[in-house]
Input
Amino acid sequence: MRIRTVSVHTGVAKDKSYNSVITPIYPSSTFYFDAIGKNKGYDYTRTANPTRTALEENIAALEGGVGCSATATGMAAVTTVMFLLKPGNHVITGDDIYGGSYRLFSSIFSGMGLSFSFVNMRDVAAIRAALRPETKMIWIETPSNPLLNITDIAAVTALAAERGILTVADNTFLSPYFQRPFELGVDVVVHSTTKYINGHSDIVGGAIVYRAKEIEERGRYLVNALGLAQAPYDAWLALRGVKTLAQRMEAHQENAMKVAEYLERHPRVKKVYYPGLKSHPQGELIRRQMKGFGGMLAFELDTSKIPLDRFFERTKLFALAESLGGVESLVEVPWQMSHASMGEAALKLSGITRETIRVSVGIEAWEDLVEDLDQALKG
Ligand SMILES: *Cc1c(COP(=O)(O)O)cnc(C)c1O
Output
């Protein structure tokens, strides 16, 4: 079945009592046993819940994994995956990953016996040079946030496989509709379902998707033991949202392409980062690895011509807000907002400037979005 069918038909038809077409919300914290040792597969909602299971089946099917854990937030998913490691282990990841992941790695897990190398993930040689005997995980986030740099997933997983290193891909930006990391050899896929999977900016959530049964078992054990699972209500909303993933991703992409092309021609814009533009330096890899370009882009505003504040005061359809992947368009300044927790030195190293504006392009009419940007850029 194609993704458009899978997203609609997986994890539904769960209600044998009344035949509801839509999966019910099971808000029960506990489930009774028919006899000691005999229940219907659920005992306590931290461990498992039928609504959450339905969402997990759906996301696992979309990614092509053997199973999935739906977590309370994207960071809960990232946290769980880090607990697959042991003190002394070393992790290689990008110098331009999601700010919250960077903070978790550099200020929480670094103090708990793990060590990290933050490298330029575009450069496979740099990844190879960072390898140590104790390297046990390579954390991939591609396209990166917010500069849309691309990591060659197959090259990284080949490097890791020779050495028995676990590979993880944060697939939040493209969603399984535009990128399927398991097909490129990745072991674990992580999502902030807050973004495209749910798509409506009305919950926070995360997902860990497993390629093999052994890691799934360990992952489920950890989510339960750490207490990081998603609430049934939120899982239910994510399951509703994911059904239109394909249609939304197509709409996001079409709009992002129009906005990127418009911005690239604008005299007050110095540079545009979008994988769909011919100017993106990694075009060959993009076509090889991605099934689409997604709805995220970034650009450098020429603040000698228009002050940053002025631009944000004037936009009407693009709300100044963090987060991304919802049906509505958002703009933000990574330096001061989403990526501020990285600190100045790391920000500079990653190529983010004070003038970098990140855009999450929504599914509105692209003509309205371009008109809004046009009047805002007049300043
Ligand atoms: C938002 C995001 C996260 C964190 O997810 P939350 O749901 O905010 O906890 C992780 N990775 C990426 C790429 C994200 O965009």
User: Anything to note?
Assistant: The chain has two domains: 3-242, 245-377. Residues 73-75, 98, 100-101, 141, 145, 170, 172-173, 192, 194-195, 204, 206 surround pyridoxal-5'-phosphate (CB under 6 Å).
